[in-house]
Amino acid sequence: MHFRLFLLSTLFFFISSCSYVTDKSSQNIARYGESFLSNEDFLSQMQGFEKEDSLLRANTVINNWAIEKILIERAKLNLAENKIQNIESLVAEYRSNMLSEAYIEALVNSSIDLEVDSIEIQSLYENNKGLFVLNDDIFKLVYIELPLDFSDTYLVRSKIKRLKRDDQNFLDSISFRFKGFSLNKDKWIAKNELLQKFPFFTNYSYRSLKNYNFFQFKDSLSLYLIKVTESANNGDISPMDYVLPTLEYMSLNKRKKDLIQKIKTDILSDALSNNKLEIY
């Protein structure tokens, strides 16, 4: 204990009294026994620190390095041999796993097909519908926010309620006159998002929107026109396009697993055919 305190105080005194080495030609910053803290390793841990903080950081880097070396040395001297062997085995196993997984990942990334297969996506959806039960109402909708003095309110209301292609083109063409709008009919929105976006909804008005697929609301500043173009209810099976990102992930993950299995089979077969692997 006294030795450790002496060491730490000595290191702190050394760092506090001297400028730490930044000359690239100097190979080492510190030594403990046969171990050295190289200038390169030291400088890599010093990057990103302001000049006024560098002295404290340098002290911390060197102290931590020294403490680690001391603890490792004492662990080898004082721990039971079987404990050390278990640790060494775990380290070797971890290293082997990291290397093999990194190599397989590199092989997979260099050869996997990232194209979305619509037939496979459809098959995944049909075979896994039980995984895609909705826990909230979802909607596709468009909305327009009009100023109260808007001169063509009736026309805009009739267009958004009908919302044929020509109606949408017309609304797009005059959208610069709106206070706010979204005419994207392809994006799903969950009930929770809807209520956050339009906080004026009550239970009654929400039911009205669901029943009639249209709702308008006027406050002291604006008139809101909301048109539902598609919906699905809590407890229904999700529409495929709503869970498409999940399906694409499942498809990619399946292809990765299949490719990994093929890689393992191929390298095993190759090793056997080249007589590098013999199974007795």
Number of strands: 7
Radius of gyration: 33 Å
Give the low-pLDDT segments. Answer: 1-25
Give the H and E element order: HEEHHHHEHHEEHHEEH
Helix content: 55-70%
Silhouette:
elongated
Distance between the termini: 55 Å
Q: Supply the helix-strand structural class.
A: alpha+beta
Average pLDDT value? 88
Outline the structure in words.
- The protein has 280 residues and is an alpha+beta fold.
- Among the domains are: 2-78, no CATH class; 134-232, Chitinase A, domain 3, CATH 3.10.50.
- The protein has 10 helices and 7 strands.
- It has helices at residues 2-17, 39-46, 51-78, 81-111, 118-127, 153-162, 165-173, 191-197, 203-212, 244-273, and strands spanning 28-32, 35-38, 138-147, 180-182, 188-190, 214-218, 222-232.
- Helix 1 packs antiparallel against helix 3 (51-78) and helix 4 crosses helix 10.
- Residues 1-25 have low confidence and may be disordered.
Task: Based on the model shown, name its key terms.
280 residues, 57% helix, alpha+beta, 5-stranded antiparallel β-sheet, 10 helices, Chitinase A, domain 3
Task: Detail the topology: elements first, then pairings.
Layout: H1 2-17, E1 28-32, E2 35-38, H2 39-46, H3 51-78, H4 81-111, H5 118-127, E3 138-147, H6 153-162, H7 165-173, E4 180-182, E5 188-190, H8 191-197, H9 203-212, E6 214-218, E7 222-232, H10 244-273
Antiparallel strand pairs: 1-2, 3-4, 3-5, 3-7, 6-7
